[in-house]
Write a structure and sequence with these properties.
Layout (H helix, E strand, L loop, with lengths): L2 H19 L6 H8 L3 H8 L2 H23 L9 H14 L2 H11 L10 H14 L6 H28 L6 H19 L28
Helix pairs in contact: 1-2, 1-4, 4-5, 4-6, 4-7, 5-8, 5-9, 7-8, 8-9
Length: 218
């Protein structure tokens, strides 16, 4: 393998391990064993354990942000906001990237300088608002993205606990309803009309068997 292919294989193996054991249980020797390489060879490609974790997070987040930017290409209809937030939830909560970001922020304060396309995402969203004739300043769009990012990050880490504190059902349905609520709030503030859901015509009601019969004429 080339150096680039080896690094990509290491990042993929690390992400798989992280889903299983989290950052606290990650052992570089086990990742090296998974790939059939030595521990020194692994370090040669990725540096330290912290650098490896940062690279895994950056790789996943850039892929997510690239997908989200594609949802806000100027000239297309406004995106279905809930499915967009579902993508964020899949990466941040289900795959555990939010926990990794929080861990890195505490372990390595300089990790916040990692590569990100969040600024590009904000530019894409603002372009949609401009195309729709919304005259809000760029800062307003940026603050909306910050609010959405902060909310999704917090729910990814604390969601079940927060639901429990609010005496709400702790399940996936409740988390999905929160994303629907958040999406509607963000679209309303941005002045972007949400796409109308497809409506399935309701079948005509069948006549009840217990309906009162018509009276016969005498």
């Amino acid at each position: 393998m080339s150096a680039e292919e080896a690094r990509e294989a290491i990042l993929a193996a690390t992400e798989k391990r992280l889903r299983e054991v989290g950052p606290e249980g990650l052992r570089l020797q086990e990742i090296a064993s998974d790939l059939g390489i030595s521990h020194p060879t692994l370090l040669h490609h990725v540096g330290s354990r912290e650098e490896l974790l940062e690279a895994v997070v950056t790789r996943s987040m850039i892929a997510l942000e690239t997908d989200l930017i594609a949802c806000f290409t100027p000239g297309v209809s406004p995106p279905e906001i809930v499915s967009t937030l579902d993508k964020v939830d899949e990466v941040m909560r289900v795959r555990g990237q939010a926990r990794l970001i929080a861990w890195l922020a505490l372990a390595r304060p300089d990790a916040s300088k990692a590569e990100s396309r969040l600024g590009d995402l904000t530019v894409a969203i603002h372009a949609v608002r401009t195309a729709l004739g919304k005259g809000a300043p760029f800062e307003d769009t940026a603050f909306g993205v910050m609010l959405g990012a902060a909310a999704m990050f917090g729910v990814s880490i604390l969601g079940p606990g927060l639901l429990s504190m609010m005496k709400l059902p702790v399940d996936e349905a409740s988390l999905r309803r929160f994303r629907e609520w958040l999406g509607a709030l963000l679209l309303e503030h941005a002045g972007i009309e949400a796409p109308s859901p497809a409506v399935t015509p309701r079948p005509a009601a069948a006549r009840s068997r217990t309906a009162r019969p018509r009276s016969r004429r005498s």
